[in-house]
């Protein structure tokens, strides 16, 4: 927008444009995070899954997951002490391991 055109806009409008320009990157990242969280809520974990067999996870995280038995990856991500890195490792393990239907089954259910 040309500087001379800004004079025609009210102060609140100019302020909103400046805020949108300044924070657009943060807003986009927040939207991505919300979408990722919603995706994790749709990814159901196997009921009989033995978290103690996931050697890549710390012993503490394995114990917490085994104790709480979350139904979805989203629930697992909200357990105190379960880091985003642990969630990523768990997801990789489920996709690559003996749970090949993990992603397919859950993606079909959400479609």
Overview features:
GIDA_C_N, mainly alpha, single chain, DNA polymerase, domain 1, 111 residues
Verbal overview:
Its cofactor is FAD. Residues 21-92 form the tRNA uridine 5-carboxymethylaminomethyl modification enzyme C-terminal subdomain domain. Belongs to the MnmG family. The protein is built from six helices and no strands. The chain has helices at 3-6, 11-42, 59-68, 73-77, 84-96, 101-110. It is elongated and about 65 Å long. The model has no long low-confidence stretch (mean pLDDT 84).
What does this entry show, briefly?
Its cofactor is FAD. This protein has 111 residues and is mostly helical.
Q: What's the SSE blueprint?
A:
Elements lengths: L2 H4 L4 H32 L16 H10 L4 H5 L6 H13 L4 H10 L1
Mean pLDDT: 84
What is the CATH homology-level superfamily?
GidA associated domain, C-terminal subdomain
What number of structural domains do the residues give?
1
Q: What structural class results from the helix and strand content?
A: mainly alpha
Strand content: under 5%
Global morphology: elongated
Number of strands: 0
Family: Belongs to the MnmG family.
Domain tRNA uridine 5-carboxymethylaminomethyl modification enzyme C-terminal subdomain: 21-92
Cofactor: FAD
GO cellular component, one term: cytosol
């Amino acid at each position: 927008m040309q500087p001379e055109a800004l004079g025609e806009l009210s102060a609140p409008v100019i302020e909103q444009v400046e805020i949108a320009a300044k924070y657009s990157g943060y807003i986009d990242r927040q939207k991505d995070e919300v979408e990722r969280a919603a995706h994790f809520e749709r990814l159901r974990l196997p009921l009989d899954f033995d978290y103690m067999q996931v050697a890549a996870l710390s012993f503490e995280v394995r114990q917490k997951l085994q104790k709480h038995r979350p139904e979805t990856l989203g629930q697992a991500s909200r357990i105190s002490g379960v880091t985003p890195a642990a969630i990523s490792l768990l997801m990789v393990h489920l996709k690559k391991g003996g749970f090949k239907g993990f992603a397919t089954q859950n993606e079909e259910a959400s479609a």
